[in-house]
Each structure stands twice: as C-alpha cells, then as structure tokens.
Design a protein that fits this description.
The complex is a heterodimer.
Chain A lengths: L9 E9 L5 E9 L5 E7 L7 H12 L3 E5 L10 H10 L5 H16 L4 E10 L1 H12 L5 E5 L30 E6 L7 H13 L4 E6 L16 H20 L4
Parallel strand pairs in A: 3-4, 3-5, 5-6, 6-7, 7-8
Antiparallel strand pairs in A: 1-2, 2-4
Helix pairs in contact in A: 3-4
Chain B lengths: L4 E13 L2 E13 L9 E7 L8 E6 L1 H20 L7
Classes of the chains: A alpha/beta, B alpha+beta.
C-alpha cells in the first residue's frame, strides 16, 4: 500500500530483445528504481497496437511495483505511427499465434533474467492481447499469474481456425499452470457471455484456479478511457481486482 | 485482432495522405475495431500502397449502415455514368 511518505522512482525506456525465431523486436520497459526484489509482468498489447494506452499501462504497473515489459508484437510490420502499423497487421489478418507466443515468451525470459527479479512472473492482456496472454500462459509454463481482460476468440468454431490461428486457445486449457483472473463485459459480443461461460466451464472441469468477473453495463474494452466503451465504475473495480490478484500471486507468499 | 475479418483487393487510383497524393495499389477492407469511430466494430477501409510503407494510407471507418449506403451509392453513380456513355471502353 502506497503512502505519501514513500520514495517513488521508475525508469522507462525502449529496449530490444530477441523474440520468436530469434528476431530482434523492440519493447517498452518500465521498472521501479531500487534493488527490489520486484515481480515481473509481461503485457500483451491489444489489437489497436503498441500504442499510447499500453505505454501508459506499462508505466502504471511499474508504479505499482512490477518490472513491466510490453513487447511490440507488430514490430515486423514496419514502423510508423501505431495506427498505420496496426492497419497493416489488421489487413494481414493479425499476427500468427506462434509468433506472438514466441515474442511474449522472450519477454518473460528478459524479466526473469533481471537481477532485481523476485522470481515471480505474471502476464496481462486485453482484447487480442487477452487471447495472446491466455495462449502464452498455457503454452509456456513460466507464469505465476494470468490476467485475461475480454480476450476474444479463445473459444473458436472450427471454421474460424486458420494457418495463423490453427488451434483454439481453449484447447490448451489443460496446460494452464497458473491462476487466472478473467474480466469481461456482459454486453461484449466477442467474447460473448456464452464464450465466457464455455471457458469457465472448461477451467472448472479441469480443476484450474480461476476468478471470473462479468460486469453488467459494460461491453468490449471498458478500461479504455479514450474510447466510448469506457465504463468508469466497472473499470475502477476491474483495476482494483487486477492489482489485488497480482499482489496475491506475485508479491506475497500466499500464491 | 478480434474478428480477423479482413480482405485485400488490388486497386488503381490515387489517395491523399498526410504527405500529399500517392499512388494507390491496395485497398484493405476489414470489419474490426476502429481507431476513432465510436463503435465497437466498424467497416474499415485502408487505401494503401504497401511498397511505400505503413504511412502510405488513407483510412475511413464506417458504420455498417454507412458502408452499405456507400456501396449502393457507388454502384448507382457508376450505373449513371455507364448509361450516359461516359465510361471508357477497354
């Protein structure tokens, strides 16, 4: 718990790391100043890209005591303003799942190697990033906590599978080795309440540690203060639950 | 990407972007999250020239109703031009 007499300091900068296939990509890295030890947190950015909102959220988590790394999953699409780069990725049907998982795994390795690490690691994502975070936590068992905010297409029909997305993330649920916090809006179409119920059913059946909250009056992206979808009450509660969940599993011995 | 519904078509023409006019080569049509339009999903069209990088882009984000109306309007205008004998024979 922060009190006004505490020292605060953080360092934030762009760094490079080797992602999927050893490709160099950039990432936004923010960490608290000091010897730590600090838990690490990987951020899987949303469909609108490696943008202002994700930079702000990277800083926010760092202020809350997490060494936070947000890799640019669209690095290979070239450079320009985030919207133009994202538009190019959108036209290509998104990034391949294996590539996103490889880049996020590299971010996890980067954080684990920090001399200030407390040995614990989480992953957070919203929108397509929620899906990528879920997929990565299932396929790369190095995480101690997962926050999936309205990740769409975790549940997929067979006709939605493609070469870039060959397996529905739901089918990897048995491999999930850490607790998951899921935050959803009841008015969301993707994931719909039916999709959320299907995922919850699978987690329950497999005996996983999960905590799901579906908010009435909220749709997709209710954390995004720069979009009409923002819902103040639901967003504040969602953030509080996110910080409490991460505190429990990444900072204390309770996890 | 949240819907993954996207399709590209080769086109000919010009577009006016942030740095002025450029030659268009592709139109990327998607139904997914917009950047600015106040909808959860929109019919997005990016008129681009991929060979010139991500910045060679003219973007529109339309409501479903607006997109359908636009398609009908384009067809209607082309029909009038054709009926008037204005469209050059190839």
């Amino acid at each position: 718990m922060y009190t006004t007499d505490q020292y605060e300091g953080l360092l934030a900068e762009t760094v490079m790391l080797q992602g999927f296939h050893g490709d160099w990509i950039n990432a936004y890295f923010a960490r608290p100043l000091g010897a730590g030890p600090f838990p690490g947190l990987v951020l899987a950015h949303h469909m609108p890209g490696w943008d202002e909102w994700y930079k702000e959220v990277t800083l926010r988590f760092a202020r809350h005591g997490y060494a936070t790394l947000c890799p640019n999953l669209y690095f290979r699409a070239g450079h320009g303003i985030p919207e133009d780069v994202t538009a190019k990725v959108r036209a290509a049907g998104g990034v391949p799942d294996d590539q996103a998982v490889g880049d996020l795994e590299a971010a996890a390795r980067f954080l684990r190697a920090l001399p200030t690490s407390n040995g614990r690691l989480g992953i957070f994502g919203t929108c397509s990033g929620g899906r990528h975070a879920f997929l990565t936590a299932c396929r790369v068992p190095v995480f101690d906590a997962l926050v999936d905010c309205w990740g769409g297409r975790v549940v997929m029909r067979p006709d939605e599978l493609s070469p870039n997305q060959p397996v529905a993330p739901l089918d990897y649920t048995q491999d999930l080795a850490c607790p998951i916090l899921g935050l959803f809006g009841e008015d969301d179409q993707n994931p719909s309440p039916e999709h959320v119920a299907r995922l919850e059913q699978e987690l329950k059946k497999l005996g996983k540690n999960y905590e799901f909250h579906s908010y009435p009056g909220a749709g997709h992206g209710f954390f995004y203060h720069n979009r009409p979808a923002y819902r103040q009450e639901q967003a504040v509660d969602g953030w509080n639950r996110t910080f409490a969940f991460l505190e429990k599993y990444l900072k204390t011995s309770a996890g | 990407m949240c819907t993954m519904i996207a399709q590209q078509v080769k086109i000919k023409g010009s577009g006016k972007g942030a740095s002025g006019w450029f030659t268009l080569q592709e139109a990327d049509v998607s139904y997914d999250h917009p950047f600015d339009a106040p909808f959860e999903h929109a019919l997005n069209i990016d008129f681009v020239n991929e060979s010139q990088g991500p910045a060679a882009r003219v973007a529109v984000e339309l409501s479903v109703e607006a997109a359908r109306t636009l398609v009908e309007t384009i067809q209607a205008v082309l029909s009038r031009a054709e009926a008037g004998g204005y469209i050059e024979k190839k």
